[in-house]
């Protein structure tokens, strides 16, 4: 009775033990450095009978490391120029700017409120844009005249100068050959009938005590010193990121081995997932990914191969230099992640305890970062000539 009831479970447990034992024995005999199990082919299992188990694995490739001490890197000067400092301060003033109604024609840097209705070859644009009705018409919107940042309608900001409240004008807009937001408009020439409702000019706050206090400085010199320090830190960070890229590129150029396919496939899935999520947040429609599926797959595959090769070389360097991940490294990661996510460290620890695979991935990433830091400490550094 008991045997009949639990026969299936007992058989599965027996099979699992046999496969696990066969795999361990196979590893001991072959001395392979296995990275991942690709496939398991099981024969018929029954007590007292022999059975064959075929396990397909990806093994760590043989890596002959190049000379990695003294890799040449180039960084940019970190001393901020007066022009850079002034630009930041002007940006701080812009953030606190007041916008006053201007009873005159619009000029560069003014903001214009206007309504618009579009047509394509004489037909209402609503028939073309589908759900993206905002590209067809709107009762009102704001646009910076000749602004540095492109607005919703490409090129519209360049055609508002000289117009004042009450003016009406037909504006011709040629959409880019590739326009992911509304593919139906790509390369099309659209006429928008616009009516100016209001013009506002930007009034920057004076460099006075109130402005300095709002920016936690005593005076202009104190604010400049504060901005300089911030710019220097940012340039240091950018230089470190650039060095890491240069070192990774150097390793990749000398990676004379094949990347294990299972690792490439996993990395490729991650690259594609990240790319799609980022673009969907920016409003790119799902059918755009389907349309460019082949190109996306090839691009992600190429990036994945590069990443896997660099990671394997960093792991080999870490092994050679006896670089390891210790408890302090894990604690530092937990504190950084807690600050980034807003989660308590204790909660993160519990979550990682339930997901050993994620914990292993975090350990690997910390190891890669430490290996890169080691290579940076041994790199030769040249500072580029400051641009005039």
Radius of gyration over C-alpha positions, nearest whole angstrom: 31 Å
Poorly predicted runs are none
Broad structural category: alpha+beta
Number of strands: 10
Main beta sheet, described?
6 strands, antiparallel
Overall pLDDT confidence: 86
Shape: extended
Task: Please indicate the percent range of residues in DSSP E strands (runs of 2 or more).
Answer: 15-25%
CATH architecture of the largest domain: Orthogonal Bundle
Q: What share of the residues lie within helices?
A: 40-55%
- C-alpha termini separation: 89 Å
- The total domain count is 3
Q: State the CATH superfamily name of the largest domain.
A: Trigger factor, C-terminal domain
Architecture blueprint of SSEs:
Blueprint lengths: L1 H29 L3 E9 L10 E7 L12 E4 L6 H14 L2 E4 L9 E10 L2 E2 L1 H4 L7 E8 L23 E7 L14 E15 L5 H6 L5 H34 L7 H21 L4 H6 L1 H28 L6 H15 L3 H10 L1 H23 L1 E4 L5
Parallel strand pairs: 3-10
Antiparallel strand pairs: 1-2, 4-9, 5-6, 5-7, 5-9, 8-9
Helix pairs in contact: 2-5, 5-8, 5-11, 6-8, 8-11
Written overview of the protein:
The protein has 388 residues and is α+β, with helices and mostly antiparallel strands. The chain has three domains: 57 residues, no CATH class; 106 residues, Chitinase A, domain 3, CATH 3.10.50; 164 residues, Orthogonal Bundle (Trigger factor, domain 2). It contains eleven helices and ten strands. The strands form three sheets. Strands 4, 5, 6, 7, 8 and 9 form a six-stranded antiparallel beta sheet that branches. It has a two-stranded antiparallel ribbon with strand order 1-2. A hairpin with a 2-residue loop joins strand 5 and strand 6. Helix 2 crosses helix 5. It is extended, with a radius of gyration of 31 Å.
């Amino acid at each position: 009775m008991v045997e009949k009831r639990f026969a299936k479970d007992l058989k599965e447990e027996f099979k699992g033990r046999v496969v696990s034992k066969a795999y361990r024995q196979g590893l001991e005999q072959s001395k392979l450095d296995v990275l991942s199990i690709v496939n398991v082919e099981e024969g018929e299992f029954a007590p007292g009978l022999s059975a064959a188990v075929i396990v397909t694995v990806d093994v760590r490739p043989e890596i002959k490391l190049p000379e990695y001490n003294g890799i040449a890197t180039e960084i940019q000067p970190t001393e901020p120029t007066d022009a850079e400092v002034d630009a930041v301060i002007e940006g701080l003033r812009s953030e606190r700017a007041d916008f006053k109604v201007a009873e005159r024609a619009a000029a560069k840097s003014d903001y214009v409120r206007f309504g618009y209705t579009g047509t394509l070859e004489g037909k209402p644009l609503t028939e073309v844009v589908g759900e993206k009705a905002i590209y067809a018409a709107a009762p009102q919107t704001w646009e910076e005249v000749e602004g540095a940042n492109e607005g919703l309608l490409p090129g519209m900001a360049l055609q508002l100068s000289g117009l004042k409240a009450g003016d009406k004008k037909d504006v011709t807009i040629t959409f880019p050959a590739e326009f992911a937001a509304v593919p139906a408009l790509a390369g099309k020439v659209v006429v928008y009938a616009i009516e100016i409702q209001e013009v506002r000019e930007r009034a920057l706050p004076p460099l006075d005590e109130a402005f300095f206090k709002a920016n936690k400085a005593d005076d202009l010199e104190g604010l400049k010193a504060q901005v300089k320090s911030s710019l220097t830190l940012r340039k240091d960070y950018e230089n470190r990121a650039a060095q890491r890229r240069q070192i990774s590129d150097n390793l990749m150029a000398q990676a004379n081995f094949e990347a294990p396919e299972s690792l490439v496939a996993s990395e490729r899935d991650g690259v594609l997932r990240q790319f799609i999520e980022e673009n969907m947040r920016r409003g790119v429609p799902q059918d755009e990914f389907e349309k460019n599926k082949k190109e996306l797959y090839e691009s992600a595959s190429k990036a994945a191969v590069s990443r896997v090769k660099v990671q394997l070389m960093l792991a080999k360097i870490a092994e050679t230099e006896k670089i390891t991940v210790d408890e302090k490294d894990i604690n530092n990661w937990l504190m950084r992640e807690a600050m980034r996510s807003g989660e308590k460290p204790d909660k993160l620890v519990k979550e990682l305890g339930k997901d050993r695979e994620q914990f292993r991935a975090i350990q690997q990433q910390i190891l890669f970062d430490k290996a890169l830091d080691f290579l940076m400490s041994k790199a030769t550094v040249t500072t580029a000539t400051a641009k005039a």
